[in-house]
Amino acid sequence: MKRINLTGKTVALLLLISVAGCSGAGVKHHDPMMDFGSVQAVAVMPFVNLTRDEAAAERVRDTFSTMLLATGALYVLPPGEVARGIARSGMADMTRPSPDEVKKFTGVTKTDAVITGVVREYGELRSGQTAANVISLSLQMLDSQTGTVVWAADTTRGGISMTDRLFGGGGEPMDVVTREAVDDLLDKLFE
Known about the structure:
It is a single chain. This protein has one domain (8-189): Rossmann fold, CATH 3.40.50. Strands 1, 2, 3, 4, 5, 6 and 7 form a 7-stranded mixed β-sheet that branches. Residues 8-24 have low confidence and may be disordered. The N and C termini lie far apart (51 Å). The protein is built from 6 helices and 7 strands; from the N terminus they run H-E-E-E-H-E-H-H-E-E-E-H-H. Helix 3 (79-89) crosses helix 4. It has helices at 8-20, 56-70, 79-89, 99-109, 162-167, 174-189, and strands spanning 28-30, 41-44, 48-49, 75-76, 113-127, 130-143, 149-158.
């Protein structure tokens, strides 16, 4: 049996590669003064899209809204009602509403909070001959009473793993990666 002798530099390089392929844990913020139990209905606003995929923000918003509604914890305003509320409240920038706009919008729609988001990465990530899907997004919840941020979190899922780098492979489908990211954000919301 042949023995493989790994030097310290080789081990350090392998550890660096494995860490680079891991998904980011993300950060979160919960306002300690907010009574999240009082939030019964939310509106998920259109997300900001910072990716090359023109439909990325709408896809992620749809997945997030559906999965949030599926928890049974909150009522999620349908997208058509959100659009009607935006028009009736005269909101200037629906992706980045001001505190006054949030208060006016939630008064019109009878919601307790507004969720906004930014899709930073969405789609295929390449490194050499290897490719895999990745998503990176940030969400925040704005309170209807004050219009201020009471919860915020971000996450990154997918990407190229060490196994993909060493043996090839394409990672998970985009839909799976998106659902994993949304699951992570929902876990952070309901902690």
